């Protein structure tokens, strides 16, 4: 478990990877490139909608997921996977289909599957007691471990290919991968290793761990407040603590039941109701709404995520008026570590 960022309880290790990732995600150039990319992908998506017929119902949960998948692979790896084009091809008839390189299809299919299985695996290892994954469900454990090997190999080969290109004079860009490489070089230099590419001291595992979270953490569409994004937030104390009369040994795991807090009728009036105005009428409700977590381990992608959502909503409402196809249907969702929206059909009317 003590690897990467999200579930890493080794404070020193977590701190280094987190510092590098923060530096990447907070960089001005990265944030600017992001907005431009979302705008471009939005333009591409609306062209497909036009070609599929302006009044045809559109499942936003699928399209926005494809848009963010394209976005995340472009920002994380600089590679284009054409998820939007593939979705267009799924929905249109033969003659209209666009050609997509077979290589891109194979890459996007395999890495998406690996990333989804990786998330299922994390959930399994958190929830199942040790004897279950060691003995009772050994087959499932092996499947998840084999998937992790393949997923990591795929990401390592992307990183190593890029390191080689940079060593051969290719200029660094402003996607997450290049920025993480730059941060890692800077880090090695501060340690006195004087990293000049393709120096072996570049820590590919550090870059990969950050990449895993960027890919895993940002690929799904999330229904935010109505269902909380995560069911729980985990914390562990590095030092022994005394709170009231209770003593907590160092290394104790604490689970914050965020889903319960998000639906607590003592904190929220009509907690199940979709009512964005609640924040205007009761600004203090914000304190109990921690969709991105709280404290030093709060989500480092928060600013990018908020900016992307704002841009996307503005682009969408500037061009269309939206109406849910079936207003009485409850939100369809699936929980694998996070709550994902699975189905939100709308009719788009061009303004
Ligand atoms: C709507 C979008 C997103 C939501 C709602 C969200 C929410 C969260 C939440 C609740 C946590 C746990 C925080 C805690 O325990 O206090 C988290 C952690 C994290 N998120 Fe996000 N996130 C989003 C997008 C992103 C994006 C776009 C990225 C990266 C580009 C990202 C990267 C991470 C990472 C690396 C962590 C682990 C932080 C740590 O343990 O130090 N997230 N996120």
Describe the structure.
- This protein has about 350 residues and is mainly alpha-helical.
- It folds into two domains: about 10-220 and about 300-350, Cytochrome P450 (Cytochrome p450, Orthogonal Bundle), CATH 1.10.630; about 225-290, no CATH class.
- It has twelve helices and nine strands.
- The chain has helices spanning about 10-25, 30-50, 60-75, 85-90, 100-125, 130-135, 140-165, 175-190, 205-215, 260, 280, 300-320; strands at about 60, 235, 240-245, 245-250, 255, 320-325, 335, 340, 345-350.
- The strands form four sheets. Strands 1-9-6 form a three-stranded antiparallel beta sheet. The protein has a two-stranded antiparallel sheet with strand order 2-5. A two-stranded antiparallel sheet has the order 3-4.
- Helix 8 (about 175-190) runs antiparallel to helix 9 (about 205-215).
- The chain is globular, with a radius of gyration of 22 Å.
- The N and C termini lie far apart (about 50 Å).
- The model is unreliable at about 220-225 (pLDDT under 50).
- The chain binds protoporphyrin IX containing FE.
- Protoporphyrin IX containing FE binds near residues 214 and 304.
- The site of protoporphyrin IX containing FE has 24 residues, from helix 1, helix 9 and helix 12.
């Amino acid at each position: 478990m003590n690897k990467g960022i999200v579930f890493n309880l080794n404070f020193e290790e977590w701190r280094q990877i987190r510092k590098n990732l923060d530096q990447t995600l907070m960089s001005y150039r990265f944030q600017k490139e992001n907005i431009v990319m979302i705008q471009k992908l939005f333009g591409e998506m609306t062209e497909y909608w036009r070609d599929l017929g302006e009044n045809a119902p559109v499942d936003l949960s699928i399209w926005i997921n494809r848009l963010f998948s394209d976005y995340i692979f472009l920002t994380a790896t600089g590679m284009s996977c054409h998820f939007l084009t593939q979705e267009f091809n799924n929905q249109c008839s033969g003659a209209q289909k666009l050609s997509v390189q077979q290589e891109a299809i194979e890459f996007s299919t395999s890495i998406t599957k690996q990333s989804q299985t990786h998330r299922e695996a994390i959930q399994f290892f958190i929830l199942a007691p040790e004897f279950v994954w060691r003995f009772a469900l050994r087959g499932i454990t092996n499947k998840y471990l084999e998937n992790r090997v393949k997923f990591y190999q795929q990401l390592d080969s992307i990183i190593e290919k890029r390191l080689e290109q940079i060593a051969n004079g290719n200029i660094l860009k402003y996607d997450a991968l290049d920025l993480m490489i730059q941060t890692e070089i800077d880090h090695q230099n501060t340690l006195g290793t004087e990293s000049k590419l393709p120096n072996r001291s570049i820590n590919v595992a550090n870059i990969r761990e950050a990449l895993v979270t960027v890919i895993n953490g940002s690929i799904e569409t999330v229904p935010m407040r109505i269902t909380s994004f995560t069911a729980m937030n985990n914390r562990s104390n590095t030092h022994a603590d005394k709170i009231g009369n209770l003593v907590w040994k160092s290394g104790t795991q604490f689970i914050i039941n965020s889903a319960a807090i998000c639906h607590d009728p003592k904190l929220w009036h009509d907690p199940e109701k979709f009512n964005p105005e609640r924040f205007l009428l009761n600004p203090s409700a914000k304190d109990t709404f921690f969709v991105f977590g709280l404290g030093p381990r709060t989500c480092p992608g928060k600013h990018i995520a908020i900016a992307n959502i704002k841009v996307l909503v503005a682009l969408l409402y500037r061009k269309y008026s939206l109406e849910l196809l079936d207003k009485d249907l409850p939100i369809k969702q699936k929980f694998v570590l996070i709550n994902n929206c699975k189905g939100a059909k709308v009719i788009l009317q061009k303004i």
